[in-house]
């Protein structure tokens, strides 16, 4: 109701359990039934002139209150300027209503008139046959309250009971899934907005993380084609890492598809150390060449550099073109899966195991012995290897570069698994998830490196290995050959004699040479050298500098910061003016596959089942 000045006056709060009788004087024995009105509030507690960022925000709050407090409403008018709703029982006298209007030329809405009191019976409205269903906006509003500023929210299956416990309505799986996507879109925009805002996002990523490098490639129609980015902290930290880069690509599962390329190193403690990421249209010559040309601006070409990958022909060609000075080795696990498929009527898993033993041999005599036995047992595998790949690409003892212990792409495959859910996000939320996870890794290993005692000179993995080998080395006989050049002869547990040169950091077993930290024979020689005055040698001095704690800590010294929400972006006008259109995509029928298709030779690959009913008819027909 309104006062004399025409202003809206709210109804006074009245208890839900208070009943007002129209006829207070009840005559005993009368057949007249008193009329009882119950008044209760809607739970919104709006105030006049209260502002909201949009009409949808008002609608979401009203819808949530309706489900939670068991009342139904009808929309009287809803357009760009007004939003007017009333109780569904307004024809029976319920006075609850709300009118919100747009504030001038802005998108915000404010409450103009509001009656928060219902006079209808809740028992009737809560059991109506035609009740308002839950919407994706309702699910998104619940997620905004319970998971603010988070893209990684519960699965649709887990959202259904969550929404019911918050607002008292059960939504379908598809509604929960659409609401989950809608909540993510509120943070980073729609999939189309991800392309339009990619320049602005990369500007903010570079602002938050100095030294970050990014490139965006467009086609002739100004549509998105390629993306490359490398965080400044990773670029600087890679200088303290071993110069071995593992490269692989994995599919992107969102509506626009494409491929996510990951170039990563492995820190000396055997943890992931991502260097750069790329988003391209597929594993083709042009896309791989473009990625490596941008990676070259971050990691220059040099003879010390080594790449490890699968045998994708486009990838191999691009590395040879862009990085001619580097060395390129193949993942021995992927190769073993191809090798075992070339053999028939044998235990293929045993073929792969024997091949891995050959590939991991440290010395040439050991390799030749193992490989000769492998050839005799599996001649088909030997033919396949001779025709398709050279030994210097997979045999550890023949590889020309410093590969250390990295001979598989397990590191990058593991990273692909970490981002298996993020690869279904739109472009910018996917990058958000990548940056967040890398920042988490940096923080974790920075704390470990700083909390390690100062007396420990080697990273935990190598320190543990040295601890084990010291007890073994103490039992080995050592003969001094040249005390000046620190050359010793060590008898191994196999009875063979191994010459160790501590100055050159070599051993006949080649483990010292390839792994770049002391083998058990080198440790035994170092113990013998320590017995002589003036020749005391610390084990960490025999290791490559990449295994030192100070180098490891240096790799994680910088902090990685996430990109803030869009409302906090400060982007120059020239960056905002850059136009990026979404890629073309074709909508395919059916449900989009989410599981990875196993590669050749992997376990779990399904075989096509024959139609049993068809085969039965064929067999019956042949009998007749």
From TrEMBL:
| Gene source species | Camelina sativa
- Lineage, top ranks: Eukaryota, Viridiplantae, Streptophyta, Embryophyta, Tracheophyta
Q: Which Pfam families match?
A: DBD_Tnp_Mut, MULE, SWIM
Record's protein name: Protein FAR1-RELATED SEQUENCE 8-like
- Give every SWIM-type domain span: 498-530
Task: Write down the PROSITE patterns for this protein, in alphabetical order.
Answer: ZF_SWIM
Regions crossing the membrane: none
Q: Which SMART domains match?
A: ZnF_PMZ
Keywords in alphabetical order, please.
Metal-binding, Zinc, Zinc-finger
Question: Region Disordered: which residues?
Answer: 591-624
- InterPro entries documented for this protein: MULE_transposase_dom, Transposase_MuDR, Znf_PMZ, Znf_SWIM
């Amino acid at each position: 109701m309104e006062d004399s000045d025409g202003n809206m006056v709210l109804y006074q709060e009245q208890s839900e359990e208070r009943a007002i009788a129209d006829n207070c004087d009840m005559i005993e024995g009368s057949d007249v039934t008193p009329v009882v009105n119950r008044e209760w509030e809607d739970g919104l507690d709006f105030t006049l002139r209260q502002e909201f960022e949009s009409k949808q925000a008002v609608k979401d709050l009203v819808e949530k209150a309706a489900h939670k407090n068991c009342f139904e409403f009808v929309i009287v008018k809803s357009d760009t300027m007004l939003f007017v709703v009333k109780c569904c029982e307004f024809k029976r006298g319920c006075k609850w209503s709300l009118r919100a209007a747009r504030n001038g030329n802005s998108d915000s809405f404010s409450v103009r008139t509001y009656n928060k009191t219902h006079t209808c019976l809740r028992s009737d409205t809560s059991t109506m046959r035609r009740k308002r269903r839950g919407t994706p906006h309702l699910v998104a509003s619940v997620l905004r309250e319970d998971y603010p500023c988070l893209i990684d929210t519960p699965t649709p299956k887990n959202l259904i009971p969550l929404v019911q416990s918050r607002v008292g309505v059960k939504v379908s799986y598809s509604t929960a899934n659409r609401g989950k996507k809608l909540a993510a879109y509120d943070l980073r925009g729609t999939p189309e907005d991800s392309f339009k805002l990619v320049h602005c996002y990369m500007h903010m990523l570079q602002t938050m993380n100095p030294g970050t490098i990014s490139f965006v490639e467009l086609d002739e129609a100004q549509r998105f084609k390629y993306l490359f980015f490398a965080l400044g902290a990773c670029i600087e930290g890679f200088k303290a890492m071993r110069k071995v880069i593992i490269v692989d690509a994995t599919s992107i599962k969102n509506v626009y598809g494409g491929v996510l390329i990951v170039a990563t190193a492995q820190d000396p403690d055997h943890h992931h150390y991502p260097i750069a990421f790329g988003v391209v249209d597929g594993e083709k010559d042009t896309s791989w060449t473009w990625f490596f040309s941008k990676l070259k601006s971050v990691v220059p070409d040099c003879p010390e550099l080594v790449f490890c990958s699968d045998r994708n022909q486009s990838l191999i060609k691009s590395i040879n073109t862009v990085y001619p000075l580097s060395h390129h080795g193949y993942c021995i696990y992927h190769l073993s899966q191809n090798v075992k498929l070339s053999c028939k009527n044998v235990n293929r898993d045993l073929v792969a195991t024997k091949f891995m033993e050959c590939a991991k041999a440290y010395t040439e005599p050991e390799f030749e012995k193992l490989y000769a036995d492998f050839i005799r047992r599996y001649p088909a595998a030997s033919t396949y290897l001779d025709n398709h790949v050279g030994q210097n690409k997979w045999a550890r003892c023949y590889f020309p570069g410093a590969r250390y212990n990295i001979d598989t792409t397990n590191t990058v495959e593991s990273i692909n698994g970490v981002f298996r859910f993020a690869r279904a996000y739109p472009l910018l939320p996917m990058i958000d998830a990548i940056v967040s996870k890398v920042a988490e890794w940096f923080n974790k290993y920075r704390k470990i490196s700083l909390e390690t005692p100062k007396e420990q000179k080697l990273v935990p993995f190598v320190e543990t290995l040295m601890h084990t080998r010291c007890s073994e080395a103490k039992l080995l006989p050592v003969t001094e050959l040249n005390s000046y050049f620190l050359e010793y002869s060590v008898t191994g547990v196999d009875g063979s004699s191994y010459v160790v040169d501590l100055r050159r950091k070599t051993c006949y077993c080649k483990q010292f040479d390839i792994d770049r930290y002391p083998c058990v024979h080198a440790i035994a020689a170092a113990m013998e050298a320590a017995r002589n005055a003036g020749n005391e040698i610390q084990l960490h001095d025999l290791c490559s500098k990449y295994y030192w704690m100070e180098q490891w800590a240096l790799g994680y010294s910088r902090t990685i910061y996430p990109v803030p929400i869009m409302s906090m972006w400060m982007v120059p006008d020239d960056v905002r003016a850059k136009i990026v259109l979404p890629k073309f995509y074709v909508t395919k029928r059916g449900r989009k596959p989410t599981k990875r298709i196993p590669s050749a030779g992997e376990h779990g690959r399904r075989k096509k089942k024959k139609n049993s009913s068809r085969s039965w008819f064929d067999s019956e027909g042949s009998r007749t």
